[in-house]
Amino acid sequence: MTGTPSGRMRQTILEWLKDPPAHFPAARHRGPAETGVTARAVAAKLGVPSRTARSHLDLLTRLGLLRTHRTRCRTYYRRDEIRIAEVARMFEKGW
Fold first, then answer.
1. Reported pTM
2. Which residues, in sequence order, are CB contacts of 79 under 8 Å at separation 6+?
3. What span, in angstroms and rounded, lies between the C-alpha atoms of 18 and 79?
């Protein structure tokens, strides 16, 4: 996933989501560690349009690396640490 600019961008997003409070501002009532992070916040940090960030986040979600939940009209993204560990083990074993 690190060979292309898109792959590097997705890897960066996954790294940021390891420790959201270190990379994203807190929401009104709760911090990003509790709620997750919106596509808009990721887009602002990457310096890309929200549509581009959402496309990367959606791919990572379809791969099972991120979980989502909706609150009102916003979707929040968080890492799925169990799935990420499973994928890492598959690569370590050589598939």
1. 0.83
2. 14, 17, 18, 65, 66, 67
3. 7
